[in-house]
Amino acid sequence: MADRTKNSGYWAEFPVTYRAEQIEIILQWVAAGESGIVVGGSGTGKSNLAGFLASRPDAITPYLSEEPETYCLVRLDINSLPALTIPFFYRGLIQTLQDASQGLGSEIYQEMQQLTQGRVNWDDLFEVLTILQQAHQLVIRRAGKKVVWLLDRFDEACKHMDAQTLSSLRSLRDRFKGRLSYVLFTRHPLKRLRDPRQIDEFHEIVAAHTCWVGPMVERDARWVTRQMAERLDTTFSESEIKQLIFVTGGLPAFLKLSCLALAQGAIRAGQAAPRWVEELLARPEFQRNCQEIWDDLTTAEQGVLIALTAGAKEAQVDQASLAYLGQTGLVTKLASPDEIAIFSPILTAFITEQISNTAGTLELHPKTRAVLINGIPLNIELTSQEDRLLSFFLEHSEEVCQKDILIEAVWPGEAGIEGVSDDRLAQLVTRLRKKIEPDPGQPLYIQTVRGRGYRLVQPDE
Question: Average pLDDT of 198-224?
Fold first, then answer.
């Protein structure tokens, strides 16, 4: 691999240990001549990882048995193409490889340029594929390199590119098997982007290996805070750095924006972490980032995060969804058994907002007596009286329940002996609302019917 460290631009200032855990995994595939997928959600810094890999040969050296000069890591950002068309895609591959050949000697570089000299019909896909094969032939056979394509932001290409184009990448790989591989950078696993059966030839060579990119480890998070402080011409104290990493969970997007907010005075040293979370989540950029993370998840995965926010234990949530959230880094294991948590208090606060703004079907589990909303258990326990009251409401959903009937249902013995006041019933309704209502001051479920009693309403009915 040609030494491009001096010309690596933005990535030159990154420490050699940046994302070392993920780089080690990726280079295990590369060393074996195999392909794979790097998956990371919004704000995780996938593109930085792709750029770093392409620009810093010194960072890959510790993980390769061969000399790094053997490899030619080339990055194509799909979003940089003028349009996502087949001609532009192939043309982008060829141009990227031609640019990379500058470090392979003048003879190879000149021959690479000659491939597109004269008139090329870029709409003639056979001609373009021939040029692409010849370009690889020069780099792999003539220059003796192993080519590793880092295809960044590949989601839309996977979803919309025709199957034959993706199959042509497989065919190219087969032509130079062991010396050509692809590393795709996406926000989602490929099976979420497209039915694997539609692109089975291509899917087969990339789906065997997956590397997940999520929040950064403390080493990298600390470097980001130092980098941001230098850019903002300020310094952060040790206590500020610790609190920045805690509230952001080490997610690159959260961390950079939080550093900016601290430097600008939107959050201040000495304020407690909950205050920082409140102030940061009120900013549009954090709302937008949180919404992107939320929208990338399935309903079941969102439900798990809601349940965890409400205090659910590991065993109480959908295990397949929990496993996926663990791979993304959105949830983490705690020290205690069966204890898991959302990675950042900022996302936790955002989810709490989602819960307060959204109501679902209310139920009581017939055996455990757990209160469920949209099938997700709330982290509450009902007293026997609250249980009887809610049970009666659910059995008579949408009906106006007279106060005396409710009193008889909740206190069947006392009602006939010493009587139960309306005030006592009202206090019980208040306690129940505090446990089950998103906003007890404006109840969605248990509504008061003046002069008559109460009515339970299911918001989706």
Answer: 96
